[in-house]
Amino acid sequence: ALFPSSERKRFYRNVSISQGEGGFEINLDHRKLKTPQAKLFTVPSEALAIAVATEWDSQKDTIKFYTMHLTTLCNTALDNPTQRNKMQLIRAAVKFLETDTVCYRVEEPPALAELQKNEWDPVVTWAEQRYNVTIGSSTSILGPNIPASTKETFVSHLASYNMWALQGIEFVITQLKSLILSMSLIDRHITVEKAVLLSRLEEEYQIRRWGNVEWAHDYDLCELRARTAAGTLFVHLCSESSTVKHKLLQD
Predict the structure, then answer these.
(1) Tell me, what's the pLDDT at 221?
(2) Model pLDDT for residues 106-149, shown as the tens digit of each residue
(3) Which of 16, 95, 218, 245 to pair with 205, CA 20 to 30 A apart?
């Protein structure tokens, strides 16, 4: 297995991709990359293969697996360690609506309540119009009462994605703790920076009020952006074929 721990010494010089029967493969010198469960690492699109190869190529003397979010997402899609089927993945994603970050509001302090309203309401309104659903928000500890029809609409919308993309969507939702922000991001309504900022509105409010107390905040922010960006890119590369490929090769 190539993943014994979170870091190991770089053992290859060249990274390349090749087309195999099951899709695109990654070669580290003359060895084919394998998943943690020792399956052949093969991805559905050339653009995704290029992106994964770039992750391996950009590792220095030490391979830091925890920085390789696209590789990790591909491993998850290939090995499916939790052994869930498509409907289970979709239901898990939609369940986040019940505890969606942007639906839980404070009443105190008024300045934060106002900030949440100004920043979150437009995203909720956009989602309601885009998916033709009712979502709402609540200051109750129980959160808003999301109608069953809203959940069903999101279930059928997510069903239009393939298994790979769904793994990526769930990864993004887990970062942002919000289905609404994740869909806004994946539908290109908001940027990664904006999505991350909105998901951390309370922390950002406290920092503006008390000052940036520790460097850990900057690290967390960068880390969250990196993970969210990787997850979003993964979803797009798994959902689209040729158009993305040419764009990536030109960059």
Answers:
(1) 87
(2) 999 999 999 999 999 999 999 999 999 999 889 988 878 899 99
(3) 95
pLDDT digit string (tens) for 171-230?
A: 999 999 999 999 999 999 999 999 999 999 998 898 888 776 666 677 888 999 999 999
Nearest to 24 by CA among 40, 37, 3: 40
Does residue 9 form part of some domain? Answer: no
Q: d(Cα 69, Cα 113) in Å, to the nearest integer?
A: 34
Last residue of a domain, one of 55, 79, 103: 79
The count of other CB atoms within 10 Å of the CB of residue 204 is 18
Residues 108 and 40 in one domain: no
Give the structural domain span for 92. 86-239
Q: Is 154:97 a contact under the CB 8 Å cutoff? A: yes
Say if residue 60 is in the same domain as residue 114.
no
Domain assignment present for 167 = yes
Q: How far, rounded to the nearest angstrom, does the alpha carbon of residue 127 sit from its chain's CA centroid?
A: 18
**CA contacts within 13 A on the Cβ side of 31:** 10
pLDDT tens-place string over residues 4-17: 567 889 999 999 99
Domain final position from 44, 64, 79: 79
SS (H, E, C) 82-141: CCCCHHHHHHHHHHHHHHCHHHECCCCCHHHHHHHHHHHHHHHHHHHHHHCCCCCCECCC
Cβ neighbours of residue 167 closer than 8 Å, sequence gap 6 or more: 73, 76, 77, 89, 234
CATH code for the domain of 43? 3.30.2180.10
202: left (phi over 0), alpha (psi -120 to 50) or beta: alpha
Helices and strands (DSSP H and E) totals, the chain: 11, 6
